[in-house]
Specification:
The chain has a single domain, classed as Amino acid/polyamine transporter I. The longest helix has 33 residues. α4 packs antiparallel against α12. With 363 residues, the chain is mostly helical.
């Protein structure tokens, strides 16, 4: 096994919450609001169903093939040729997805906080520190996540200062056009909740294997509740006009003031958001590096971490030329693409594995 580290189930929860929510918290309210309008606050509940289902799929596969990642057991399930093709596709998917995360991160910083600094500076910066964590192993990532996630979530308490400005009339009328718009808005969340399949690469390294499913479900619940709160604040502060902003959350935190004197809370919240993105990039880079090393039969995944970072910088600017294309991709392509790769295809693997197990037992 290329990774010999072990983490606790609680550390896994600290890793997964920012891994899912760090980029989603900025753009999900706007994208989901285009479909659900006044009911956008409900959409995380619908979207989380895919998250719970994906966690269950990853756990069942882990039970059938303990101490193995999807790259390793896919060949045992569907054969060497098809298994390696699936593994190659999965590794490329996570490399591509990591490039998109880097692009979203750098575009947000340069477009809202540091307008004069080239975006590539922030891309290189976060990839460098994430690569150092990945080379340290999963234990280093987990310990860093405990600190970074705590700070990342603590700053969300600042939303309390906005309660006095809430207007719940923006939530009315409830289900004006029936449940279909809410379902469509919930479907947008699939791109993020399906990322819980990353747990399939983390379950083998838990020191308490029997706690994996419960911790995965708890992490999904936490993400759903956080998105529910964020969507609620965005809707009751901005109304349906929030759909015209790609980063409505940043707009509402700019309005935070305390006693008319303490302002500019968005700087503190942005700093904590950077910590959350560090955890997210580290987890995705770790999975991509580990998966690629297992696919190439390397003895150590650390050898390819920095070369992979160079490729990620190129991918982040080659694939998405501007923010308009990024928004269009996240609305029309990403929910279907991510659901297919991280939920539907693993479900087929699980069906085939269970069928082969049943046949071998009957034989």
């Amino acid at each position: 096994m290329l990774e010999k580290g072990r983490i606790s189930a609680l550390q896994m929860e600290f890793m997964m919450v920012p891994t899912i929510i760090a980029t989603g918290v900025l753009s999900i309210p706007s994208i989901a609001g285009r479909f659900a309008r006044h009911d956008m606050w409900m959409t995380p509940i619908i979207g989380s169903l895919i998250g719970f289902f994906t966690v269950y799929i990853a756990w069942k596969l882990h039970q059938l093939f303990p101490r193995q990642t999807p790259i390793q057991y896919s060949e045992q399930i569907v054969g060497k040729v098809i298994g390696r093709l699936f593994s190659l596709f999965l590794v490329f998917f996570y490399i591509h997805d990591t490039g998109l995360i880097i692009r979203q991160y750098s575009d947000f910083i340069t477009g809202n906080v540091m307008l004069e600094t080239p975006a590539v500076v922030f891309s290189i910066g976060i990839l460098f520190v994430s690569a150092l964590a990945v080379r340290g192993g999963i234990e280093v990532i987990a310990r860093s996540a405990v600190i970074c996630t705590t700070l990342f979530l603590c700053t969300s308490v600042a939303l309390i200062f906005l309660i006095k400005d809430l207007d719940v009339s923006y939530m009315l009328p409830i289900l004006e056009n029936g449940p279909l718009p809410v379902i469509k808005g919930g479907f947008v969340h699939n791109a993020w909740f399906s990322e819980f399949f990353l747990l399939a690469f983390i379950f083998p390294f838990l020191n308490s294997q029997n706690k994996g499913l419960k911790s995965g479900m708890k992490a999904t619940l936490y993400v759903m509740l956080l998105l529910l709160v964020v969507n609620f604040f965005v809707l009751t502060l901005l109304g349906v006009s929030s759909v015209n902003q790609f980063y409505p959350v940043f707009s509402i935190v700019r309005a935070i003031t305390v006693l008319g004197f303490f302002e500019n809370f968005e700087i503190i919240i942005t700093a904590s958001w950077v910590l959350g993105n560090f955890v997210k990039v580290s987890v995705f880079l770790y999975v991509a590096s580990l998966g690629l090393a297992q696919l190439l039969r390397l003895s150590d995944y650390r050898l390819i971490v920095f070369p992979l970072c160079l490729l990620l910088i190129l991918l982040s600017y080659w694939d998405i030329p501007n923010i308009v294309v990024l928004v269009d991709y996240m609305t029309k392509v990403q929910p279907f693409y991510f659901l297919l790769v991280q939920t539907v295809l693993p479900l087929f693997l699980l069906f085939i594995a269970l069928a082969r197990k049943k046949r071998s037992e009957s034989g």
